[in-house]
């Protein structure tokens, strides 16, 4: 059993803390909202304000930080997590008697933990990362409607580590998890979380764009079409599709059909498909500058059309 503090007790923080508690750890929640503290205490959990956490005990094994990082005018707003990091450094981390690990879970741009979080902790605690305390970045993959269930049934745990000592400590905390646990650098774990979210956003936006185009037809079962695509398109059923660094898509179908559908939507209905259009434009640019290996341009494997498959049988 490890003694854990959850810094920031919103949806992610509460799912994290409740999940760790369910799996045998001693958890203390910390938040700046007194109402949140009162509700957690009413439900039988240990919870306190930041200024009280340092006085509660000085032997935490880890501090999991789940503080919000909202967007402000199109830019990420880090002031909340910076403020929480300062408080942690000046209080509980400074007074902590033994080795512990600080583990941000908030979504952060690659490099933020190394360039912002660690220096802030060191400056305010007087301690040295890698010597006096460890640091890991542990991205969360929780859905808001089922956050606690997702936490206790993870598909994957990613641990970005400052060093192996830090990573091993977080391994110990997650020893109950029956899923792959992958170790990366701090920046790689931060990047993975962003790409994870961006891919989900782009996929939703793409199918919304297709729904708008196909919706111009009456009596078309668009949901049925999408369900079939989920089974037929390799980009859906093969999780490794498109991940290799092989340059632009190529072949007899993909370049032809992306341009054809884009032109058809414009001429038939007068509509623009910005996601598809950008895909075509970026692929053209990449094709022009694609690097060469052994004198040949690198590209994704050619994807044959159905008719080509029939003709070659």
TrEMBL record:
It comes from the Bacteria. SUPFAM superfamilies: 6-phosphogluconate dehydrogenase C-terminal domain-like, NAD(P)-binding Rossmann-fold domains. One of its GO terms (molecular function) is oxidoreductase activity, acting on the CH-CH group of donors, NAD or NADP as acceptor. Residues 188-284 form the UDP-glucose/GDP-mannose dehydrogenase dimerisation domain. GO terms for biological process: polysaccharide biosynthetic process. Pfam families: UDPG_MGDP_dh, UDPG_MGDP_dh_N. Coiled coil: none annotated. InterPro entries: 6-PGluconate_DH-like_C_sf, 6PGD_dom2, NAD(P)-bd_dom_sf, UDP-Glc/GDP-Man, UDP-Glc/GDP-Man_DH_dimer, UDP-Glc/GDP-Man_DH_N, UDP_ManNAc/GlcNAc_DH. Residues 3-173 form the UDP-glucose/GDP-mannose dehydrogenase N-terminal domain. Belongs to the UDP-glucose/GDP-mannose dehydrogenase family. PANTHER family: UDP-GLUCOSE 6-DEHYDROGENASE TUAD (PTHR43750). This is UDP-glucose/GDP-mannose dehydrogenase dimerisation domain-containing protein. The lineage of its organism: Bacteria, Candidatus Staskawicziibacteriota.
